[in-house]
From TrEMBL:
<dbReference type="GO" id="GO:0042546">
    <property type="term" value="P:cell wall biogenesis"/>
</dbReference>
<keyword id="KW-0808">Transferase</keyword>
<protein>
    <recommendedName>
        <fullName>Fucosyltransferase</fullName>
        <ecNumber>2.4.1.-</ecNumber>
    </recommendedName>
</protein>
<comment type="function">
    <text>May be involved in cell wall biosynthesis.</text>
</comment>
<keyword id="KW-0328">Glycosyltransferase</keyword>
<dbReference type="GO" id="GO:0032580">
    <property type="term" value="C:Golgi cisterna membrane"/>
</dbReference>
<keyword id="KW-0961">Cell wall biogenesis/degradation</keyword>
<keyword id="KW-0333">Golgi apparatus</keyword>
<dbReference type="GO" id="GO:0008107">
    <property type="term" value="F:galactoside 2-alpha-L-fucosyltransferase activity"/>
</dbReference>
<dbReference type="GO" id="GO:0009969">
    <property type="term" value="P:xyloglucan biosynthetic process"/>
</dbReference>
<keyword id="KW-1133">Transmembrane helix</keyword>
<dbReference type="GO" id="GO:0071555">
    <property type="term" value="P:cell wall organization"/>
</dbReference>
<keyword id="KW-0472">Membrane</keyword>
<comment type="similarity">
    <text>Belongs to the glycosyltransferase 37 family.</text>
</comment>
<keyword id="KW-0325">Glycoprotein</keyword>
<keyword id="KW-0812">Transmembrane</keyword>
Amino acid sequence: TSQSSENAEVANDKLLGGLLPSGMDEASCLSRYQSFMYRKTSSFKPSTYLISKLRKYEELHKRCGPGTQPYNEALKQLKSGNETAVPTECNYVVWIFYSGLGNRILTVSAAYLYALLSNRVLLVDPGTDMTDLFCEPFPSTSWFLPQNFPLYKKFENFNQKSSRCHGFMLKKNLLNATKASTEEVPPYLYLHLGHDYNDHDKLFFCDEDQTLLNKVPWLIMRTDNYFVPSLYLIPSFEEELFKLFPEKVAIFHHLGRYLLHPTNEVWGLITRYYNAYLARADERIGIQIRTFEEGPGPFPHVNDQILSCISKEKLLPEVDKDDLSFGSSKNPRSIAVLVTSLDAGYSDSLRELYWEHPTVTGEVVGIFQPSHEGFQQSHKKNHNRKAWAEMYLLSLSDKLVTSAWSTFGYVAQGFGGLKPWILYKPEDKKTPNPACGRAMSIEPCFHAPPFWDCKAKTGIDTGKLVPHVRHCEDISWGLKVV
Ligand code: GDP
């Protein structure tokens, strides 16, 4: 009957086209099964192969997660102090809590993709507030690393000179990836994949090192970078990536929406704001303003940049400065602009502009900004809740403007499936010309990719090797999937 096909459709929407597992408790994480009510159906469909891979991963995580017998077995190797690993039933990648919230959302997703590709179980260091911000993504198990994890206290001291750092061991010839098949490996390795990593750490992105790492039961990873584009350049991963993501640009779009569900506290922030200020507008525009400049804002050159971008790209109607336009409609078309910024100044100017003058189209423009926190305060709970809520709210827009270099904006564009207009990074406090440009794809940019040809053992421009991995629009040396 049409009723049951309608129900099936709603069920399919609710699970984001099969991306989400069904049957998880709804009350403890309302956002998981309510997000479809706030989002338009994505134009990117998850492949059946991806869906089956996710379901298999969920089984794996349930079988190997914290507290299970294979987990305890694998832990024994860490506790024993043995120098060399013996094969374990389950292997793990541990994500270390590190960096700003936007970065963390991207790196957890990248680490999860790496877990899928390398057949590992992902465990997330809860850090100060991961449990406060994100629900459990996998049914009947936990992805959070237990507090009594034996290496926990070492995390903050892990660095590029740690004796078990992958890059350090390569440098000191304590590991030899060319003999990967016979080489003995330790029970755990620390992977330093932060923006400041060195040429040895970067060998993570070479096939022979992956063969070596395959034998290590525990990989402990620290990164503040979305390293997915470079996974495409590892031949042993490439084919699997093609199968998982036939629409290449939707990697973070799918993985982020699959993994990262706002907790009820954050969902309250999102839904209350949306319903109060955005829901009834005819069109929603998100504008994310992030400046990386010295000194107090708002900066006049950034104000000019926003206006120039909006006008050139026709994102908002022009105002009639002569105030000669008079709307005749009692109920004009309305546009809600959601501005996010640490500074209140930019949205103040826009709000004033659209109050003081009519638009030439007769449309009305409302400007809304949920918070203006002044500066980054990543250690504060409520601050991060608001930051997460704002990234999510931006992603509910119909059109999106983001700031160059900002992972905050990448999260919004990825979740929303929106190709943003990027406000280019100003130099010398001058408005760039053009002020903004359209992104090539919705994928985030990898800010610090390696430029190394693993086979030829020489430097190479990794942004010119394959058509689907290119240099980013906002960072010329970055890489992104397009
Ligand atoms: P990135 O530095 O822009 O790449 O983004 P991150 O999210 O990694 O770090 C920036 C942090 O600054 C955020 O996590 C917030 O804590 C804060 N922040 C920056 N912009 C905003 C904003 O528009 N709204 C809120 N609430 N916080 C922001």
